[in-house]
Amino acid sequence: MNEVLKEHLGEIALLIYILYPLLKRWWDRTKRKGEQSGKAPNKTAQTPEPAQTPPAPPTAGPTRAPQPAPTLPHAPRPTEADLLAAAQTQLERLKRDATERLLRAENDPRLLRLAPALRDDLLGRLETIERSLRSRPTLSTIVQDTAVLRGLESLLRHLNTIALRRTHRGSAFLGTADAMADACYAPILDFARIHGLELSTSQPVVVPGDWERSIVPRFASTRVAPLRAPSDFDSDVWRWPAIAHEVAHDFYSCLKGLDRRLHDRLGLPEQVESPTSSQGLDGAWLRKLFGAWLPEIFADTMGTLLLGPAHVETMRRSLRNPDSAQRTAAIFQANGRIDEHPPARLRLYMASRVLHHLGRHTEAETLWDQWESEHPEVRFYYLPLGGQWVGLSDEALHSIADSLIDALVRDGWPELDGFQLLEIAGLAYFHAEHAEVERLAGLLARGQAVDGDVRWIMAAAVLAATAQPALHDQILDAARRSIARVGSKESVGEPSKPDGRTHRRIGKALVRSLGEPHALDEAIALAAAFTPYQPPRWR
Questions:
Q1: pTM over 0.85
Q2: 278 SS3 class
Q3: What are the start-end ranges of the E strands in 368-479?
Q4: Which of 33, 269, 335, 358 is the most buried (most CB within 10 A)?
Q5: What is the DSSP letter of 211?
Q6: Distance (Å, whole) CA 80 – CA 451
Q7: Of 101, 222, 247, which Cα lies nearest the Cα of 160?
Q8: Which of 145, 142, 148 is nearest to 82 (CA)?
Q9: Where does residue 485 rank: exposed (0-12), middle (13-18), buried (19+ CB within 10 A)?
Q10: pLDDT band at residue 173, thresholds of 50, 70 and 90?
């Protein structure tokens, strides 16, 4: 009996909780009927105690006025006119704040990069909403515009945070980092503009702060791509190439449909559930792992294409862990899924594979051998399974990585009008670029400021500091002075526009020269001399 009571104690308590008020109400109702029929006890002889009075509302009596139940005041429901007035007030406040912020951005070189977002992405949309609110909008339109205003208000807060960090927490490296990001993004933006690709970003902005480097998730469909950099980023030359990695992340996210279409084309899932047993850990499952890692693999690949061995040197230094070599080969999990970052060892292997595609075979083998010598006795990749680590064959994962890198680098991309990554003009680090980097590295090692592309200056600084670590500070200082000089030359006033009459005179002379064979030969020779070198395209 006691066991039955314990098992059904909750049900019994619930029945008592339900039945007791019903029984009490029935008893009180029976009692009132008895009083009304003259059967109630004499009130002078026995008066019921207050605790026994039924909790019923007071009844009307001959000498007592009815007491209405107290009611709480209700706020009047807002009308359509009230909602319209509130939206207009919010609109005017946002316009005032955004205009003030835009004025400050246009007059502060540190904030000038935010001006397009403030002018077009924020104030431009506010003007659209203003026209909507002035045209006798319906209630649904007012509600939609109010929701958009809330989003734009959040966007303004984000831009204000970026502005504060660039003004109050910035450092001397800010201009150099912006120039580096621009140089990495330039070939991508040029290609997108020529081929009409839909990119949601056109302005990388470096934001210093107390965080690890990363790309900030996109907000409110703006053209700004905030690149978060640690506050001590400027003191280590080997960290600078990481900007190329973050630029690649933004390109991956801002090219419409790229992530989904690339996963579909490669036959890879976007997320991979963590395994619960060793059954099914075959080659097909191992290949699925690369679907979870694809964004990081793409960023490493693009960074290596942009900066060559300098980017892989940065990866080697930032990912190495000689004190826990097995950890560099561990496959981590997060929230029941495979983590988005591949093992550090596998990332180095794939980056060295990209170097082979660029023709930098010696550098690829040297960097991989350095990694392996710093992390000896690692011959497996480790997967946590059932509280233990299961070893996965590195040969199996490396063969899948080889095929994936080959597909990313050599295959044409439908999202890029069928072009290979190696075919994007000015993007890949080929032999001519490496020769220029080696020339600049020698000058930087002597502390000389140089002229050249910002990408090659920074790549040269990395290679020079790697070869002569004792000269690190001198090389970094020379590189920053060089990049600052390049920026100052580019910021000089625009060249004057030639007179239209000069164009017409040149045009007439060219037309006349078409009938002269020797002039055609000279034109062909001049064209060949002034055309930038492009490596051959092998199909």
A1: no
A2: coil
A3: 380-385, 388-393
A4: 358
A5: S
A6: 63
A7: 101
A8: 142
A9: middle
A10: confident
